[in-house]
Amino acid sequence: MPKQRHTEGAIVSIPLKDGVFGFALLLEDPNIKVYNYFSKYESEIEAIIKNNFLFEAAIYNSIILDAEWQKIGKKQLTSEEKILKKKFIQDILNPNEFRIYDPTSGTISDSKKEECIGMDCEIVFDRETIEKILWEFYTTGISITWKEQNKMI
Fold first, then answer.
1. Phi, psi at 77, each rounded to 5°
2. CA 125 to CA 142: how far, in whole Å?
3. Over the stretch 126-151, which tens digit does the pLDDT of each residue have?
């Protein structure tokens, strides 16, 4: 399979089960925003980008480089799309220690647990986990896997 680059503004199709596709917008490597849009076809870009985002995540770059998700088009990013949500980092060895990561600026700062409530956890996801999360959203409207991945310990 040919290699492809992680190109800001590219739209990728994410094959799920039963011929269903999810779609994501590539941001600055390794970040994506996943659309709340599913289709049995690799849809037109205009139909995809009309939708809101379900979530944003960091992914392993091999997913894009190895063309596991195919690029199907590109769009000019808006200033809002370029802004990524702040995320919490919890120290696994000392679960009472928290930091806040701002992926837009690249800064990390110490924080208290209370400041992190409501934030997603900074995780780099593999292809299988993102596809599982999307399938759960598609079939049930919610994702238990997403909630489990983002909970504090």
1. -75, 140
2. 18
3. 999 999 999 999 999 989 888 888 88
Can you tell me whether residue 70 is helix, strand or coil? strand
Strand partners, 71: 12
SS3 per-residue string spanning 37-50? EEECCCCCHHHHHC
What is the rounded distance in angstroms from the CA atom of residue 25 to the CA atom of residue 8? Answer: 8
Question: CB count, 10 Å around CB of 117?
Answer: 10
Residues sharing a CB contact under 8 Å with residue 130, sequence separation 6 or more, in sequence order: 14, 34, 57, 59, 63
User: What is d(CA 133, CA 149) in angstroms, rounded to the nearest whole number?
Assistant: 10
Residue 34 CA to residue 16 CA, distance in Å, equals 13
* SS3 call for 59: strand
Using an 8 Å Cβ cutoff, are 30 and 52 in contact? no
Is the pTM here over 0.70, yes or no? Answer: yes
